[in-house]
Design goal:
Blueprint (H helix, E strand, L loop, with lengths): L22 E5 L3 E9 L5 E10 L4 H5 L2 H14 L6 E5 L6 E8 L5 H11 L8 E9 L6 E10 H13 L3 E6 L1 H12 L8 E6 L4 E7 L2 E8 L3 H12 L3 H11 L5 H6 L3 H34 L7 E6 L7 H9 L10 H4 E3 L8 H15 L8
Parallel strand pairs: 1-4, 3-13, 4-8, 9-12
Antiparallel strand pairs: 1-2, 2-3, 5-7, 6-7, 9-10, 10-11
Length: 377
Amino acid sequence: MTILQKFRGKTASRAQASAPGLIGLDIGTDRIHLCQIRPLEHGRYSIYAKSSIEYPGGREKLLESPKKLKRVIGNALRQKKFKGKRVVALMPWEDVKIMLLTYKSNVNDVDAEVVRMLADRTEGSIEDYVIDYVPVRANPGDEEHMVVATISAREKVNRLLNALIGCGLEVDSLDIAPTALRRVVSALYTGHAADNVLLIHTYREESYLTVISGRRLLFNQSVAFGENLLLERISAELDISLESARALVRDHGLEKQSLARAIGADTDNDVSGTLLEIVKPCFLDLVNEINRVLVFTAAETHGVPVSRVCLLGSLAHWPGAQAVLMSLLDLEQPDGQTEFNQVFQDENDDTRIPWEGLFSDISIAMGLALRGQLPNE
């Protein structure tokens, strides 16, 4: 008989308010991100420890090499002085399917109904999968209720668990990226500021659009838009290597450089403008996908618009990328946005990467580390 098996395990106790909580662990395709957070008073948090480490060979090879994985993670835990070895780890985006499911409000056994709907949408036996769900819409007067369901092959879940346990880590739970990002949004924004937040998490090959509405995960979808797509387009148009294309973006960005304007030089402006014209069609394709998400969000929230848009991941490091995206979306970020340092303080400044530049990469690890620390979670 199939049982609805949760990804989530026990959450950290809030009794010891000053003690650092779980270690958030995000093993990316080429970097490992770790974060540990200590709760403070009045809805504020302290970054107790953080680390972002590049590694070669990709995630698959790393998980197949327990000694290497243990060495990389162990070094990070010691060097950055993390406390303990209890972690909440990320199930990779590509290993989890996330679906919005609706069911009649008069259903008595929601667990069984979710299992039935997922079984109809899944190849093979549902017994071979680990599934979970969270309510999205469950108003008493609605004819239908909605949940966000997650499903992952049991084999992949066990493989990750075994790899982490083999490193000597205590695995509190496995979690998914949208849920982790929801915690970060919930910590940063309250009231109207948290109405609807769109997060665009970009990677090398694809990106993920996630909408957080208040404290609810409302939407999550992958789109064929990533850093490599843009670099390949630049490389082809200018007949240069991918590394040269990357260097051009790093040095010039996608908008006019303030330094060039200050000294009256046109070189940076010309290069930035050329790069923007090359990649603009790709951004427009992304905007078309985002507009569909905005329509869905408005329909689900009775017309409440998206209050802010945040670009995360690899493309967040492209100078001007956020500004270009916002101009194409024709959306204005509201005044009086919550400043990051009003909510989070950083105890662990021992890093070569400025925190402002690191946040776009380590945000998921932060959300994992916040597990059990938010009120009413």
